[in-house]
# Entry
Amino acid sequence: DIHIQYERVGADVTMKCGSMDWDATVTWTANGTDIDESHLNGSYLILKNVDLTQSGQYSCYEGSSWHLKYQTYLRVGTPPREPVLMCRSNNYPKGFYCSWHLPTPTYIPNSFNISVIHGTKEMVCEKDAVPKNRCHIRYLQLFSTVKYKVTLTVTNALGKNFTTLTFDEFAIVKPDPPESVVAKPVPNNPRRLEVSWQNPSSWPDPESFPLKFFLRYRPLILDQWQHVELSDGTSHTITDAYAGKEYIIQVAAKDNDIGTWSDWSVAVHATPWTEEPKHLTTEAQITETTSASTSSFMVPPTTKICDKGAVVGSGAVAVCWTAGLVVAAYSVLFI
Amino acid sequence: MAGADSPSAALRRRDLCARGIRLAGKMRSDVVDLLDAYVEQQGLDASASVAAVEGLPPAAVERWDEQTGTQRLLENLAAYRAFRALLAQMLEEQREQLGEADAALGRALAAVLLQVSAFAYHLEELLRLESRGPPSEEEDGPPPQPRGLFEQKLRGLGVLRELAQWAVRSARDLRQLAKPGPGTGSAPSPAES
# Structure
Protein backbone atom coordinates (compact mmCIF):
# COMPACT_ATOMS: atom_id res chain seq x y z
CA ASP A 1 0.00 0.00 0.00
CA ILE A 2 1.28 3.44 -0.88
CA HIS A 3 0.50 6.01 1.75
CA ILE A 4 0.82 9.72 1.33
CA GLN A 5 0.65 11.91 4.37
CA TYR A 6 0.20 15.67 4.19
CA GLU A 7 1.21 17.80 7.12
CA ARG A 8 1.44 21.53 7.74
CA VAL A 9 4.76 23.28 8.14
CA GLY A 10 5.39 23.56 11.87
CA ALA A 11 3.15 20.66 12.82
CA ASP A 12 4.18 17.79 15.10
CA VAL A 13 3.86 14.47 13.25
CA THR A 14 3.49 11.02 14.75
CA MET A 15 3.94 8.04 12.45
CA LYS A 16 2.86 4.60 13.45
CA CYS A 17 4.62 1.56 12.07
CA GLY A 18 1.53 0.06 10.48
CA SER A 19 -0.07 -2.49 12.78
CA MET A 20 3.05 -3.00 14.93
CA ASP A 21 2.58 -2.67 18.69
CA TRP A 22 3.90 0.38 20.41
CA ASP A 23 6.60 -1.60 22.18
CA ALA A 24 7.85 -3.41 19.09
CA THR A 25 11.46 -2.93 18.05
CA VAL A 26 11.61 -1.09 14.76
CA THR A 27 13.94 0.95 12.66
CA TRP A 28 12.74 3.99 10.76
CA THR A 29 14.44 5.42 7.71
CA ALA A 30 13.97 8.67 5.91
CA ASN A 31 14.81 8.44 2.19
CA GLY A 32 16.87 5.35 2.98
CA THR A 33 18.84 6.88 5.83
CA ASP A 34 18.38 5.51 9.34
CA ILE A 35 16.65 7.82 11.76
CA ASP A 36 18.17 8.23 15.17
CA GLU A 37 16.35 6.50 18.04
CA SER A 38 15.93 9.82 19.83
CA HIS A 39 13.07 10.55 17.44
CA LEU A 40 11.22 7.41 18.48
CA ASN A 41 8.60 6.95 21.10
CA GLY A 42 8.37 3.17 21.25
CA SER A 43 7.77 2.21 17.67
CA TYR A 44 6.26 5.56 16.77
CA LEU A 45 8.28 8.10 14.90
CA ILE A 46 7.88 11.62 16.27
CA LEU A 47 8.78 14.57 14.13
CA LYS A 48 8.36 17.90 15.82
CA ASN A 49 7.80 21.22 14.08
CA VAL A 50 8.26 19.74 10.61
CA ASP A 51 9.72 21.82 7.82
CA LEU A 52 9.79 21.45 4.05
CA THR A 53 13.13 19.62 4.06
CA GLN A 54 11.56 16.76 5.96
CA SER A 55 9.32 15.80 3.06
CA GLY A 56 10.25 12.39 1.74
CA GLN A 57 9.81 8.67 2.01
CA TYR A 58 9.61 7.23 5.51
CA SER A 59 9.93 3.50 6.02
CA CYS A 60 9.59 1.32 9.07
CA TYR A 61 11.36 -2.03 9.37
CA GLU A 62 10.81 -4.74 11.94
CA GLY A 63 13.74 -4.92 14.35
CA SER A 64 15.28 -8.30 13.75
CA SER A 65 13.89 -9.40 10.40
CA TRP A 66 14.21 -6.09 8.61
CA HIS A 67 10.91 -6.71 7.00
CA LEU A 68 9.34 -3.56 5.65
CA LYS A 69 6.29 -3.02 7.76
CA TYR A 70 5.10 0.38 6.70
CA GLN A 71 5.99 3.06 4.21
CA THR A 72 4.65 6.52 3.69
CA TYR A 73 5.44 9.64 1.74
CA LEU A 74 5.43 12.66 3.95
CA ARG A 75 4.57 15.87 2.12
CA VAL A 76 5.02 18.98 4.20
CA GLY A 77 3.17 22.00 2.92
CA THR A 78 0.72 24.77 3.71
CA PRO A 79 -2.98 25.31 3.18
CA PRO A 80 -3.65 27.62 0.23
CA ARG A 81 -3.73 31.36 0.67
CA GLU A 82 -6.31 33.44 -1.17
CA PRO A 83 -5.66 32.86 -4.88
CA VAL A 84 -5.07 35.67 -7.36
CA LEU A 85 -7.66 35.67 -10.16
CA MET A 86 -7.76 37.67 -13.35
CA CYS A 87 -10.32 37.64 -16.16
CA ARG A 88 -9.89 39.28 -19.51
CA SER A 89 -11.37 39.37 -22.96
CA ASN A 90 -8.69 39.66 -25.63
CA ASN A 91 -10.93 38.16 -28.30
CA TYR A 92 -14.09 40.21 -27.89
CA PRO A 93 -16.87 39.50 -28.73
CA LYS A 94 -16.16 35.78 -28.77
CA GLY A 95 -15.57 35.30 -25.06
CA PHE A 96 -13.15 35.77 -22.21
CA TYR A 97 -10.64 33.82 -20.18
CA CYS A 98 -9.77 33.69 -16.53
CA SER A 99 -6.39 32.78 -15.16
CA TRP A 100 -5.17 32.34 -11.63
CA HIS A 101 -2.25 31.55 -9.43
CA LEU A 102 -1.40 31.25 -5.79
CA PRO A 103 0.53 34.11 -4.20
CA THR A 104 2.77 31.67 -2.34
CA PRO A 105 3.43 28.01 -3.11
CA THR A 106 1.86 25.31 -0.94
CA TYR A 107 4.44 22.66 -1.87
CA ILE A 108 1.69 20.07 -2.16
CA PRO A 109 -0.80 19.38 -4.96
CA ASN A 110 -3.71 21.82 -5.31
CA SER A 111 -6.94 21.51 -7.21
CA PHE A 112 -8.86 24.47 -8.58
CA ASN A 113 -12.54 24.85 -9.19
CA ILE A 114 -13.99 27.81 -11.01
CA SER A 115 -17.61 28.87 -11.26
CA VAL A 116 -18.98 31.60 -13.50
CA ILE A 117 -22.43 33.02 -12.93
CA HIS A 118 -24.17 35.52 -15.17
CA GLY A 119 -27.32 36.68 -13.48
CA THR A 120 -29.00 33.44 -12.54
CA LYS A 121 -27.26 31.40 -15.19
CA GLU A 122 -24.28 29.20 -14.40
CA MET A 123 -21.77 29.07 -17.23
CA VAL A 124 -19.07 26.50 -17.89
CA CYS A 125 -15.49 27.74 -18.07
CA GLU A 126 -13.55 25.21 -20.11
CA LYS A 127 -10.11 24.54 -18.77
CA ASP A 128 -7.23 25.11 -21.13
CA ALA A 129 -4.62 22.39 -21.50
CA VAL A 130 -1.94 25.02 -21.86
CA PRO A 131 -1.36 27.10 -19.96
CA LYS A 132 -2.63 25.39 -16.86
CA ASN A 133 -4.60 27.48 -14.41
CA ARG A 134 -6.63 29.05 -17.15
CA CYS A 135 -10.08 28.51 -18.57
CA HIS A 136 -12.12 30.16 -21.27
CA ILE A 137 -15.77 30.88 -21.79
CA ARG A 138 -17.83 31.83 -24.79
CA TYR A 139 -20.21 34.74 -24.49
CA LEU A 140 -23.79 33.58 -24.79
CA GLN A 141 -25.08 37.13 -24.66
CA LEU A 142 -23.59 40.41 -25.74
CA PHE A 143 -24.24 43.94 -24.54
CA SER A 144 -25.60 42.74 -21.23
CA THR A 145 -25.67 45.03 -18.20
CA VAL A 146 -25.83 42.04 -15.89
CA LYS A 147 -22.52 41.43 -14.19
CA TYR A 148 -20.47 38.25 -14.26
CA LYS A 149 -19.43 36.69 -10.99
CA VAL A 150 -16.44 34.38 -11.07
CA THR A 151 -15.49 32.37 -8.00
CA LEU A 152 -12.28 30.42 -7.82
CA THR A 153 -11.80 27.87 -5.05
CA VAL A 154 -8.46 26.24 -4.43
CA THR A 155 -8.28 23.11 -2.31
CA ASN A 156 -5.48 20.93 -1.05
CA ALA A 157 -5.13 18.29 1.63
CA LEU A 158 -4.50 20.94 4.27
CA GLY A 159 -7.29 23.39 3.56
CA LYS A 160 -9.08 25.57 1.06
CA ASN A 161 -9.48 29.18 0.07
CA PHE A 162 -11.33 31.17 -2.54
CA THR A 163 -11.68 34.52 -4.23
CA THR A 164 -14.47 36.18 -6.21
CA LEU A 165 -14.34 38.62 -9.09
CA THR A 166 -17.37 40.58 -10.27
CA PHE A 167 -17.28 42.53 -13.51
CA ASP A 168 -19.35 43.58 -16.45
CA GLU A 169 -18.86 42.57 -20.04
CA PHE A 170 -17.17 45.76 -21.21
CA ALA A 171 -14.79 46.24 -18.32
CA ILE A 172 -12.57 43.23 -18.97
CA VAL A 173 -12.03 43.87 -22.68
CA LYS A 174 -8.29 44.29 -23.24
CA PRO A 175 -6.80 43.37 -26.60
CA ASP A 176 -3.37 41.82 -27.03
CA PRO A 177 -0.69 44.27 -28.16
CA PRO A 178 -0.40 45.09 -31.88
CA GLU A 179 1.80 42.72 -33.86
CA SER A 180 4.50 43.04 -36.48
CA VAL A 181 5.44 46.60 -35.57
CA VAL A 182 7.87 47.91 -38.16
CA ALA A 183 9.60 51.29 -38.19
CA LYS A 184 11.53 52.48 -41.22
CA PRO A 185 13.37 55.62 -42.15
CA VAL A 186 11.93 57.70 -45.00
CA PRO A 187 14.47 58.29 -47.79
CA ASN A 188 15.65 61.88 -48.02
CA ASN A 189 13.74 62.80 -44.90
CA PRO A 190 16.02 63.09 -41.90
CA ARG A 191 13.19 63.84 -39.46
CA ARG A 192 10.70 61.16 -40.42
CA LEU A 193 10.06 57.60 -39.43
CA GLU A 194 7.33 55.48 -40.94
CA VAL A 195 5.71 53.12 -38.45
CA SER A 196 3.29 50.35 -39.34
CA TRP A 197 1.74 47.49 -37.41
CA GLN A 198 -1.02 44.91 -37.51
CA ASN A 199 -4.07 44.20 -35.42
CA PRO A 200 -3.39 41.50 -32.83
CA SER A 201 -4.25 38.15 -34.42
CA SER A 202 -6.34 37.18 -31.38
CA TRP A 203 -8.84 39.99 -32.13
CA PRO A 204 -11.44 38.17 -34.22
CA ASP A 205 -13.35 40.92 -36.05
CA PRO A 206 -11.53 44.24 -36.41
CA GLU A 207 -14.06 45.39 -39.00
CA SER A 208 -17.06 45.36 -36.72
CA PHE A 209 -15.00 45.92 -33.58
CA PRO A 210 -12.32 48.31 -34.74
CA LEU A 211 -9.33 49.08 -32.60
CA LYS A 212 -7.74 52.41 -31.94
CA PHE A 213 -4.04 52.77 -31.26
CA PHE A 214 -1.58 54.64 -29.11
CA LEU A 215 1.93 55.16 -30.38
CA ARG A 216 4.82 56.20 -28.18
CA TYR A 217 8.33 57.03 -29.28
CA ARG A 218 11.50 58.62 -27.95
CA PRO A 219 15.15 58.83 -28.90
CA LEU A 220 17.17 56.31 -26.90
CA ILE A 221 19.12 59.10 -25.30
CA LEU A 222 16.05 60.77 -23.78
CA ASP A 223 13.60 59.56 -21.13
CA GLN A 224 10.55 61.53 -22.22
CA TRP A 225 8.09 59.75 -24.53
CA GLN A 226 6.08 61.42 -27.26
CA HIS A 227 2.53 60.10 -27.64
CA VAL A 228 0.13 59.96 -30.53
CA GLU A 229 -3.40 58.55 -30.42
CA LEU A 230 -4.74 57.20 -33.70
CA SER A 231 -8.40 56.44 -34.18
CA ASP A 232 -7.96 54.35 -37.30
CA GLY A 233 -5.38 52.96 -39.62
CA THR A 234 -2.41 50.80 -38.79
CA SER A 235 0.37 53.15 -39.77
CA HIS A 236 1.71 56.54 -38.84
CA THR A 237 4.56 58.79 -39.93
CA ILE A 238 6.57 60.47 -37.20
CA THR A 239 7.62 63.87 -38.56
CA ASP A 240 9.49 65.39 -35.65
CA ALA A 241 12.26 62.88 -35.08
CA TYR A 242 15.70 64.20 -34.23
CA ALA A 243 17.94 63.59 -37.20
CA GLY A 244 20.45 60.82 -36.83
CA LYS A 245 19.13 59.62 -33.48
CA GLU A 246 18.08 56.08 -32.84
CA TYR A 247 14.48 55.83 -31.72
CA ILE A 248 12.55 53.33 -29.69
CA ILE A 249 8.89 52.92 -30.70
CA GLN A 250 5.94 51.02 -29.26
CA VAL A 251 2.24 50.71 -30.03
CA ALA A 252 -0.77 49.77 -27.89
CA ALA A 253 -4.34 48.96 -28.90
CA LYS A 254 -7.82 49.40 -27.45
CA ASP A 255 -11.31 48.67 -28.65
CA ASN A 256 -12.74 51.87 -30.05
CA ASP A 257 -15.58 52.01 -27.55
CA ILE A 258 -14.98 49.80 -24.53
CA GLY A 259 -12.43 48.25 -22.23
CA THR A 260 -8.82 49.15 -21.56
CA TRP A 261 -5.56 49.62 -23.42
CA SER A 262 -3.43 46.63 -24.28
CA ASP A 263 0.10 46.24 -22.99
CA TRP A 264 2.74 47.94 -25.12
CA SER A 265 3.93 46.03 -28.14
CA VAL A 266 7.44 44.71 -28.51
CA ALA A 267 9.71 47.74 -28.95
CA VAL A 268 11.26 48.45 -32.33
CA HIS A 269 14.25 50.60 -33.02
CA ALA A 270 14.83 52.85 -36.01
CA THR A 271 16.99 55.77 -37.01
CA PRO A 272 15.79 58.43 -39.47
CA TRP A 273 17.50 58.64 -42.84
CA THR A 274 20.76 60.52 -42.89
CA GLU A 275 22.99 61.72 -45.72
CA GLU A 276 25.50 59.04 -46.77
CA PRO A 277 29.14 60.05 -45.98
CA LYS A 278 30.29 58.79 -49.45
CA HIS A 279 28.66 61.86 -51.03
CA LEU A 280 31.63 63.86 -49.71
CA THR A 281 34.04 61.57 -51.59
CA THR A 282 32.12 62.09 -54.84
CA GLU A 283 32.29 65.90 -54.51
CA ALA A 284 35.96 65.82 -53.64
CA GLN A 285 36.71 63.78 -56.79
CA ILE A 286 34.85 66.33 -58.94
CA THR A 287 36.92 69.11 -57.32
CA GLU A 288 40.12 67.28 -58.32
CA THR A 289 39.15 66.87 -61.99
CA THR A 290 37.64 70.29 -62.63
CA SER A 291 39.99 72.87 -61.21
CA ALA A 292 43.27 72.86 -59.35
CA SER A 293 42.81 76.50 -58.46
CA THR A 294 39.87 75.90 -56.21
CA SER A 295 41.09 76.68 -52.78
CA SER A 296 37.99 76.33 -50.67
CA PHE A 297 36.17 73.06 -50.18
CA MET A 298 32.75 72.54 -51.61
CA VAL A 299 30.19 71.28 -49.19
CA PRO A 300 27.74 68.92 -50.85
CA PRO A 301 24.42 70.80 -51.08
CA THR A 302 22.41 68.03 -49.38
CA THR A 303 24.64 67.77 -46.33
CA LYS A 304 22.50 68.54 -43.34
CA ILE A 305 24.61 67.05 -40.61
CA CYS A 306 24.79 70.37 -38.82
CA ASP A 307 21.13 71.22 -39.32
CA LYS A 308 19.83 73.29 -36.41
CA GLY A 309 16.96 70.95 -35.86
CA ALA A 310 19.28 68.01 -35.50
CA VAL A 311 21.31 69.44 -32.68
CA VAL A 312 20.61 67.52 -29.53
CA GLY A 313 22.99 67.73 -26.64
CA SER A 314 26.71 67.62 -27.00
CA GLY A 315 26.75 64.65 -29.37
CA ALA A 316 25.62 66.69 -32.36
CA VAL A 317 28.42 69.21 -32.01
CA ALA A 318 30.94 66.41 -32.37
CA VAL A 319 29.16 65.27 -35.56
CA CYS A 320 29.36 68.75 -37.05
CA TRP A 321 33.00 69.06 -36.15
CA THR A 322 33.90 65.66 -37.54
CA ALA A 323 32.09 66.31 -40.85
CA GLY A 324 33.85 69.61 -41.27
CA LEU A 325 37.18 67.95 -40.58
CA VAL A 326 36.52 65.23 -43.16
CA VAL A 327 35.52 67.72 -45.83
CA ALA A 328 38.49 69.93 -45.02
CA ALA A 329 40.83 66.93 -45.19
CA TYR A 330 39.61 65.95 -48.66
CA SER A 331 39.90 69.48 -49.94
CA VAL A 332 43.46 69.80 -48.66
CA LEU A 333 44.29 66.61 -50.56
CA PHE A 334 42.99 67.89 -53.86
CA ILE A 335 44.01 71.51 -53.92
CA MET B 1 -37.10 54.62 -55.50
CA ALA B 2 -33.85 52.80 -56.25
CA GLY B 3 -33.80 49.04 -55.67
CA ALA B 4 -32.19 47.79 -52.48
CA ASP B 5 -29.03 46.64 -54.24
CA SER B 6 -28.50 49.50 -56.69
CA PRO B 7 -25.21 51.38 -56.47
CA SER B 8 -26.90 54.57 -55.30
CA ALA B 9 -28.75 52.67 -52.58
CA ALA B 10 -25.51 51.02 -51.51
CA LEU B 11 -23.81 54.41 -51.30
CA ARG B 12 -26.70 55.88 -49.35
CA ARG B 13 -26.64 52.91 -46.97
CA ARG B 14 -22.92 53.30 -46.42
CA ASP B 15 -23.35 57.00 -45.82
CA LEU B 16 -26.22 56.49 -43.37
CA CYS B 17 -24.26 53.78 -41.56
CA ALA B 18 -21.17 55.96 -41.28
CA ARG B 19 -23.18 58.87 -39.91
CA GLY B 20 -25.14 56.57 -37.65
CA ILE B 21 -21.92 55.12 -36.25
CA ARG B 22 -20.61 58.58 -35.47
CA LEU B 23 -23.91 59.55 -33.91
CA ALA B 24 -23.96 56.39 -31.80
CA GLY B 25 -20.43 57.15 -30.60
CA LYS B 26 -21.32 60.70 -29.64
CA MET B 27 -24.53 59.53 -28.02
CA ARG B 28 -22.70 56.98 -25.92
CA SER B 29 -20.15 59.50 -24.78
CA ASP B 30 -22.90 61.98 -23.84
CA VAL B 31 -24.95 59.31 -22.06
CA VAL B 32 -21.94 58.22 -20.02
CA ASP B 33 -21.35 61.85 -18.96
CA LEU B 34 -25.04 62.23 -18.22
CA LEU B 35 -24.98 59.05 -16.14
CA ASP B 36 -22.19 60.45 -13.98
CA ALA B 37 -24.04 63.73 -13.50
CA TYR B 38 -27.33 61.94 -12.87
CA VAL B 39 -25.87 59.65 -10.23
CA GLU B 40 -24.31 62.59 -8.44
CA GLN B 41 -27.30 64.91 -8.66
CA GLN B 42 -29.79 62.29 -7.62
CA GLY B 43 -27.61 61.09 -4.76
CA LEU B 44 -27.49 57.53 -6.04
CA ASP B 45 -24.90 54.80 -5.73
CA ALA B 46 -23.42 54.25 -9.19
CA SER B 47 -23.29 50.49 -8.66
CA ALA B 48 -26.86 50.21 -7.38
CA SER B 49 -28.66 47.35 -9.03
CA VAL B 50 -31.92 48.36 -10.59
CA ALA B 51 -34.93 46.10 -10.79
CA ALA B 52 -36.31 45.48 -14.27
CA VAL B 53 -37.77 48.68 -15.65
CA GLU B 54 -41.07 48.23 -17.44
CA GLY B 55 -40.84 48.98 -21.11
CA LEU B 56 -37.04 49.21 -21.09
CA PRO B 57 -35.59 47.43 -24.11
CA PRO B 58 -32.63 45.30 -22.99
CA ALA B 59 -29.53 45.63 -25.12
CA ALA B 60 -28.47 42.10 -24.22
CA VAL B 61 -28.82 39.73 -27.16
CA GLU B 62 -27.95 36.11 -27.86
CA ARG B 63 -26.34 35.01 -31.13
CA TRP B 64 -25.76 38.65 -32.05
CA ASP B 65 -23.39 37.63 -34.83
CA GLU B 66 -26.12 35.58 -36.53
CA GLN B 67 -28.65 38.39 -36.83
CA THR B 68 -29.65 39.60 -40.27
CA GLY B 69 -29.30 43.23 -41.24
CA THR B 70 -33.05 43.74 -41.14
CA GLN B 71 -33.31 42.18 -37.68
CA ARG B 72 -30.65 44.53 -36.42
CA LEU B 73 -32.43 47.57 -37.81
CA LEU B 74 -35.83 46.53 -36.48
CA GLU B 75 -34.54 45.77 -32.99
CA ASN B 76 -32.60 49.01 -32.87
CA LEU B 77 -35.56 51.04 -34.07
CA ALA B 78 -37.92 49.50 -31.53
CA ALA B 79 -35.38 50.23 -28.81
CA TYR B 80 -34.78 53.85 -29.70
CA ARG B 81 -38.48 54.56 -30.07
CA ALA B 82 -38.91 53.15 -26.58
CA PHE B 83 -36.02 55.28 -25.29
CA ARG B 84 -37.60 58.33 -26.86
CA ALA B 85 -40.71 57.78 -24.76
CA LEU B 86 -38.77 56.86 -21.60
CA LEU B 87 -36.48 59.89 -21.82
CA ALA B 88 -39.43 62.19 -22.50
CA GLN B 89 -41.04 60.82 -19.37
CA MET B 90 -37.83 61.34 -17.40
CA LEU B 91 -37.66 64.94 -18.58
CA GLU B 92 -41.23 65.48 -17.49
CA GLU B 93 -40.51 64.03 -14.05
CA GLN B 94 -37.35 66.11 -13.89
CA ARG B 95 -39.29 69.31 -14.46
CA GLU B 96 -41.83 68.39 -11.83
CA GLN B 97 -39.22 67.46 -9.26
CA LEU B 98 -36.95 70.43 -8.90
CA GLY B 99 -36.45 73.76 -10.58
CA GLU B 100 -33.14 75.52 -10.98
CA ALA B 101 -30.85 73.01 -9.29
CA ASP B 102 -31.31 70.43 -12.01
CA ALA B 103 -31.54 72.78 -15.00
CA ALA B 104 -28.21 71.57 -16.36
CA LEU B 105 -29.28 67.98 -15.92
CA GLY B 106 -32.54 68.72 -17.69
CA ARG B 107 -30.67 70.29 -20.61
CA ALA B 108 -28.34 67.30 -20.85
CA LEU B 109 -31.32 64.95 -20.82
CA ALA B 110 -33.01 66.95 -23.55
CA ALA B 111 -29.85 66.85 -25.67
CA VAL B 112 -29.67 63.08 -25.36
CA LEU B 113 -33.35 62.81 -26.23
CA LEU B 114 -32.63 64.77 -29.39
CA GLN B 115 -29.82 62.41 -30.32
CA VAL B 116 -32.03 59.41 -29.68
CA SER B 117 -34.68 60.88 -32.01
CA ALA B 118 -32.06 61.59 -34.66
CA PHE B 119 -30.76 58.07 -34.41
CA ALA B 120 -34.26 56.64 -34.72
CA TYR B 121 -34.65 58.68 -37.89
CA HIS B 122 -31.41 57.22 -39.29
CA LEU B 123 -32.72 53.75 -38.61
CA GLU B 124 -36.02 54.51 -40.32
CA GLU B 125 -34.12 55.73 -43.39
CA LEU B 126 -32.00 52.60 -43.45
CA LEU B 127 -35.11 50.46 -43.25
CA ARG B 128 -36.63 52.34 -46.17
CA LEU B 129 -33.52 51.45 -48.16
CA GLU B 130 -34.14 47.81 -47.33
CA SER B 131 -37.42 48.25 -49.21
CA ARG B 132 -39.10 47.26 -46.00
CA GLY B 133 -39.98 50.59 -44.61
CA PRO B 134 -40.10 51.18 -40.91
CA PRO B 135 -42.99 49.71 -38.95
CA SER B 136 -45.56 52.25 -37.86
CA GLU B 137 -45.18 53.53 -34.37
CA GLU B 138 -47.25 51.94 -31.67
CA GLU B 139 -49.95 54.00 -30.08
CA ASP B 140 -49.15 55.62 -26.77
CA GLY B 141 -49.31 53.12 -23.95
CA PRO B 142 -51.40 53.62 -20.83
CA PRO B 143 -50.53 56.76 -18.87
CA PRO B 144 -47.57 56.27 -16.54
CA GLN B 145 -48.43 55.23 -13.03
CA PRO B 146 -47.57 57.67 -10.32
CA ARG B 147 -44.24 56.77 -8.79
CA GLY B 148 -42.38 57.82 -5.72
CA LEU B 149 -39.36 60.09 -6.14
CA PHE B 150 -36.81 57.41 -5.30
CA GLU B 151 -38.40 54.94 -7.66
CA GLN B 152 -38.26 57.56 -10.41
CA LYS B 153 -34.57 58.10 -9.78
CA LEU B 154 -33.79 54.39 -9.90
CA ARG B 155 -35.77 54.00 -13.11
CA GLY B 156 -33.82 56.88 -14.60
CA LEU B 157 -30.58 55.16 -13.67
CA GLY B 158 -31.76 51.95 -15.32
CA VAL B 159 -32.82 53.78 -18.48
CA LEU B 160 -29.52 55.61 -18.90
CA ARG B 161 -27.45 52.52 -18.22
CA GLU B 162 -29.32 50.51 -20.80
CA LEU B 163 -29.13 53.35 -23.32
CA ALA B 164 -25.34 53.44 -22.89
CA GLN B 165 -25.24 49.72 -23.72
CA TRP B 166 -27.51 50.23 -26.71
CA ALA B 167 -25.31 52.99 -28.07
CA VAL B 168 -22.35 50.59 -28.10
CA ARG B 169 -24.43 47.82 -29.64
CA SER B 170 -25.86 50.12 -32.31
CA ALA B 171 -22.42 51.17 -33.49
CA ARG B 172 -21.51 47.50 -33.84
CA ASP B 173 -24.79 46.73 -35.60
CA LEU B 174 -24.22 49.50 -38.12
CA ARG B 175 -20.67 48.35 -38.75
CA GLN B 176 -22.01 44.88 -39.50
CA LEU B 177 -24.54 46.46 -41.80
CA ALA B 178 -21.90 48.51 -43.56
CA LYS B 179 -19.76 45.48 -44.31
CA PRO B 180 -19.66 44.73 -48.00
CA GLY B 181 -21.06 41.36 -48.84
CA PRO B 182 -24.11 39.43 -49.90
CA GLY B 183 -27.55 40.51 -48.77
CA THR B 184 -27.33 42.70 -45.75
CA GLY B 185 -31.09 42.58 -46.12
CA SER B 186 -32.81 39.24 -45.95
CA ALA B 187 -29.91 36.82 -46.30
CA PRO B 188 -28.24 35.89 -43.03
CA SER B 189 -24.94 37.61 -42.41
CA PRO B 190 -21.92 35.28 -42.21
CA ALA B 191 -21.85 33.51 -38.86
CA GLU B 192 -18.83 33.99 -36.63
CA SER B 193 -16.17 31.49 -37.56
Remarks:
- DSSP finds four helices and one strand in chain B.
